[in-house]
Amino acid sequence: MIPQVHKQGSDTHGLLKYLYGKGTHEEHIDPHLVASFDGMAPDPGRAPGATKRDLQKLLDQPLQLLDPGQRPEKHVWHLSVRNSAVDRILSDEEWGQIARRMVAATGIDPDDGAGCRWAAVRHADDHIHIIATLVREDGRRPNHHRSGKRAQAEARLLEVEYDLQRVNPGDGTAAKRPTSAERHKAERQGREQTAREELRETVRRAVAGATSDGEFFDRLAAAGLLVRKRLAPSGDLLGYKVALADDHNRDGEPVFYPGSKLAPDLSLPRIRERWLAAQQDPAAGPDDRASTPSGPARARRRAAAAAWQAILIIDHGDDRQAAAHIAAAGEVLDALAKTSAAHTRKQLSEAARAFERASRSHVRSERGHDRALRQAARDLIYGGPALGRGEDGATTAMVIDMVAFLVIAAAHWHGRKNHAQQAAAARQAAEHLRAAYQSAAQHPMAVLRHRGRRLSQPLQRRQVTHLHQAVPELAEQILAEPGWHALAATLADVEAAGHEPAALLAEAVARRELDTAESVSDVLVWRLRRLADLPADASAMPEVDTAAPQGTRRPKQPSTRRNTRPRKPR
Q: Which of 2, 193, 304, 306 is placed for a possible disulfide with 197 were both Cys, Cβ 3.0 to 4.6 Å?
């Protein structure tokens, strides 16, 4: 159940016209009253002869108790209460009971005999609107301070009593929801997202890994957004607004949104915190495009390493440092979504969109400690888009696997802090990452499994021995997984590269718990290939000689083709 207190207004009749109207898309069906302050208010929807003006006059009558100069200009209070699409359809009587509970809980009509006048209108199966006049019957103003939070608290009780879908309690750090007008406008224009949501996503991606005001605004312009900067008389930059080039109001002018209205952490001062902390860190090295690794594959390997370090901080570090790393994890997800190949782009975009809610809480981030993750996001942006094949396709699977663990660590951290909405958002992001991983890993893991099956029996038995030596408690589970052959091939590659397989495998297992892994063998494959600095794309490696002694590779065979090129004269 989602209650929402709307902006106070000054036109009771105007709001009633909307509530009893047809709606912008004929979506208002059979508007009628389900409850009112005295149970006898005229119902313009069903009572013969009753008009909206009659109801307006009745609701506004307490205003006459005050001198004209004492009447509040914004006297119209408006609350909507909406159920989930999966909830059962409530009766009018049930909605009436809910309306009475809401006005009592919010201070509009408490049980003291002198509340405000109000009416509850239902024009759809899943929600009601409550309109009230903010002057009590005794002429005093109601105590409706923090009515939104009071309504939320009452909604949590009503969900239990009416057996409705439970909504996680909020903490005031969520981005502002699109208004109904914005949603209807998006539907008319055939947009998948509202302008507000599209702008929020575009601005987030412009922030990912940015290191200065100039770079941030250049990215906004490159993304096709219209930008207005707010300057002080001194010329100092104070803020910004953005608009979509094709989103206009009824006068044909672009509709601009300040960054702070897109999300609490997208105001200019909050954005600047991300790079100013790094600039003030004397230990920080150069943070520019010159330090960016060449190509998407290397950028993804470095992002995987940075994600692992961030997991350690989130699991064992200070809360403010953990909050900074969780916020920076959102930048990495945005950068991955922006640079991903087509077959993973949708799920990575959904993961980034879901995790946006998990990136903010009341634990204020201590910026600067997240520099490695922010640099990883920058590397991904400037490393270029991944084509999804070869080494960059395989390293995409590698980094998604590690970022999924990072997101799960964030979910656990939020859970320990009782951040219910953030924890749920992180878990949702993890599900999208799992789906993205399956798409990214399909080909490289198939190559590794094929290599593993081709290993000689003695070499396979040696990898089984290494497995039992390193992780005896997990050995049988791993051997039963489809990914065991891929792990066996990786252990053979580790051995051929001069490493001790059992020791490196034990280190890979010790790096973090594996209980949340769908495939332990898959996780260990990517950890080992990163630790041993092996190519993620196994097809780029020479075959391990199945008959050669331990620690050797198959020698290159001499070419049997004759060189027919004529010799150069001496």
A: 193
At 174, which amino acid appears? A
At 431-458, the pLDDT tens digits run 999 999 999 999 999 999 999 999 999 9
Identity (one letter) of the amino acid at 471? V
Rg of the chain (C-alpha set): 30
The pLDDT tens digits of the residues spanning 405-436 come to 999 999 999 999 999 999 999 999 999 999 99
pTM: 0.78
Number of residues that make up the chain: 570
**% helix / strand / coil in the chain, to the nearest 5?**
50, 10, 40
Burial of 60 (0-12, 13-18, 19+ CB in 10 A): middle
Q: Contact, 365 vs 413, CB < 8 A?
A: no
Cα–Cα separations (whole angstroms), residue 315 to 274, 318, 404, 431: 22, 9, 15, 20
d(CA 543, CA 545): 6
CA neighbor of 394 nearest in space, from 191, 225, 536? 536
Q: Under a CB-based contact definition with an 8 Å cutoff, are residues 254 and 248 in contact?
A: yes
Reference 425, options 372, 482, 353, 479; nearest CA is 353
Give per-residue pLDDT as tens, 273-321: 988 876 665 555 544 444 556 789 999 999 999 999 999 999 988 999 9
- φ and ψ of 68, to 5 deg: -50, -35
Residues of the chain with CATH 3.30.930: 2-161
Please state, in angstroms and rounded to a whole number, the distance separating the CA atoms of residues 536 and 554.
20
CA proximity to 263, closest of 350, 195, 200, 191:
200
Look at strands 237-243 and 257-258 and give their pairing: antiparallel
